[in-house]
Amino acid sequence: MGLAMLMAALCPAAVAAQDDVEADVQLDLTSKNLWRGQDYGGPALQPRMEVRWQGLYVNAEGATTFDRDDTSRMGLQLGYRAPFGLNVGVGTQWTSGIDPLNRFLFFDEKETGHRFEANLGYTHRLFSLQAYTIFGGNDFKEEGDRAFSTYVELQVPFRLGGLDWTATAAITPMESGSWRETVVYDGSTERLKQYLYGDGFTCVQACLRATKNLNLNGFCLPVYVELNTNPYAEKASLMAGISLRPFSKK
User: Fold this and answer.
1) CB neighbours (10 Å) of residue 249?
2) How does pLDDT run across 141-169, given as a tens digit for each residue?
3) How far apart are the first and last CA of the chain?
4) How distant, in Å, are the alpha carbons of 89, 132, 149, 171, 185 from that of 36?
5) For residues 94 and 114, is the Cβ–Cβ distance under 8 A?
6) For residue 151, which of 133, 167, 166, 168 has the smallest C-alpha distance?
């Protein structure tokens, strides 16, 4: 009898907690695989999923192209978003091509593809400011010191001409992780120094995205075009993409 009463008391609370859980998934099809100013090849499939409960969230996102020689990426994050806009989180960004066997469950800091990072940010209806700093994993300067590579991004959304626009600017405040990479340059093979973001305080991304939400029989289908530049690397790409959002469910 006592057990039955306890179950009766707990069941409404469990149902209420379940009703508070939100979840969604998304798949982007893009003409380029771009991430934080870095060009990882393309075209790409970029899936994402997230579960939220009372401000807490867990998400997974990544990108893979149709060319096995391109870099694939996967990110996992656990965090909290406060009602007034502040967010904090920790997670990992894993990329292929660092560990020769591309093992995800391999954590030797000198050889793993993981970079563990902390995130602090603030989101307002007029802007979003996010900062990410790597504190563990494979993030070292060529000399062997830990780099604590940092990426700071400002996004400003606005509406113009019937389209939704997002302007993005991102910097790294200091020298990031670095390594030597063999490249063919001017007909000769050289070992050039490469950086995760840049060699000091510099702008590593400046882009402008325009999005049009197509309404197909009541189903929203965002289509976007983005002019993406990396001033530090002196590179630019014009990327197009489409987002598939099957559901957004409580």
Assistant:
1) 9
2) 988 899 999 999 999 999 999 999 999 99
3) 33
4) 18, 11, 12, 10, 25
5) yes
6) 133
